[in-house]
Amino acid sequence: MRAIGLSFIDWTIIIVYFGFVLGIGWYLKKFTKSQEDFFLAGRKNSSWVAGLAFLSANLGALELLGMTGNTFKYGMFVAHFYWIGAIPAMLFLGIYMMPFYYSSKIKSVPGYLKLRFDEKTRVLNGIAFAIMTLLVSGINLYAMALVLHTFIGWNWDVSMWASAITVAIYVTMSGLMSAIFTEIIQFFLIWFGLFLVSILGIVEIGSWKEIMVRINEYSSQVSYTTLWSSSANPLQNGMFVHWSGIVLGLGFVLSFGYWTTDFLVIQRAFSAKNLRSARMTPILASFFKMALPFIVILSGLIAIALSQDPHSGFKLLQDSGHTNYDSALPLLIARYYPSGLVGLGVTALLAGFMAGQAGNISAFNTVWTYDIYKSVLNKKASDSHLLVMGRASTIVGVIISLGTAYWAKSFPSIMDYMQAIFSWVNAPLFATMLLGMFIWWITPSGAFWGLIAGMVSSFSMYMAVKFHWINESIITMSSVQSDMAANFWRAWWAWLICVVVTVVISLFTKKRSKEELVGLVKGLTKENHDQYVPFIKRPEFYALISLVVFVILNILFW
Amino acid sequence: MPEPKMKPIWFFVGMILLVIGGIIFLNGIYLLFHPPVIKTVLADMHPDIWWGAIMIIFGGVLFLKTRNQLV
Q: Whole-angstrom Cα distance, residue A369 to residue A396?
């Protein structure tokens, strides 16, 4: 079944967008002369540019189809991914961690592990990140092909190859700079292309209150319209998760693991022109992150409300007897948008997917080139050679992600697949980073073996549950089955295992001297940035405002 | 040798919003006088006209403000 029909005008808008991003790649190519230009966009971006790119790199397929679909499936609980699952971590990154990242002039997050610990920890993380990035990149291609195939009727393979080639061309031409430019354009296209769905949805249903009334009629046993008040009993919320799972698994480990260690997003902050701009990058992004539920969560809630009205004619698509939750947003676009706006809506989705993929590929080419190729395979590589390697690895990365896209198809929902990958790699890495950045006596051996223990245990727990070797309730400490709760809890256990192993081994292995760790560990490093700047101009002030807004939102939708 | 200067990102954002907003707005005007056989929900509100206009204004301001800037 096809949901969206495209007119000549819609096609025109889509072609304008494709031509535009290719044109930008070509325009920026003449400014991309050195490896610093290609991998770090010349380190000259303002905090606004870096901040919007920081957010947009995460605003791919996951945010748009996945989150709207998950809202239909789990209810308002999905907003936790935007608020407690992002804001505290983003502010922590800007206030406490960015000074160590930015000031050490590293080119990647694994690069910090090399300075703080040793080469083997860096290479281990570099390889894990490269694999994770290519797997996640497959999601973007899968999601894009899903949109084009299911809703527009395009051929699955042709859609994936066409979009992948476009991304490969513009990232190969000008690296991170073109990725950042297209990410920011995508940010505006998403707001203009999709926010109108929420506006028209409210107009059709009547009011926000009416949406809530209709959803509550949908299920009296399970709450789909609250954030915290139904979290004490997993049976009372759509996600079937206890508040402790949200706080420890999502709010602490998964969120901090992603936002403070994932090079995909942090690379955007590295492109900032100075330390203050780098610190402001995640803080500014936090305001826009908090606003995103007004597109994706609201659309999902509107879809639930409409589906409760038999006269609305709104019903999600079915795939082989299963509800296709990811069809919620495209069906709303088809419902409200006349020709022209349909082209804008489809372009916004395409832009989200392509920018997300470009983000993954630009992070992959940097980690591959610096943390694997230069670190292990060719230590004497010249500047120009690394530039060529960056471009070559972009093309190879796109080809590998094409392969992983087919694997992504076997998961019932995009988001479940994504969180599973994060809990394998990012959760233990966050433990290593946190210990390494804040405790000086953590040793290279402790970090290395702790990281391995965390990753292996997380992956083992995932496989054990998937193949029914153990019952999921052992991990979630609850009798209620939920993939999402399992992801949260698996991340928490992986983090804890990594912490314990790292600390125990560090107690018995050789420590690096304090002098060697100056600039890399809090407490050993003089922190006098913004010393003479008035408080209202400091990143801390903006972080405080963000925190207040975050608290208000949580209370409002309690 | 001085580094070459480039147009700021906001110039490109303004340009694409102006172009796409212009297409949507003009198409909305056309559909006002030649309504389609199958109408979307709330088609009578003509969202394409006012939303296209908002995009033109937003994109136009960004485009005009940054057209002579180099960074």
A: 12
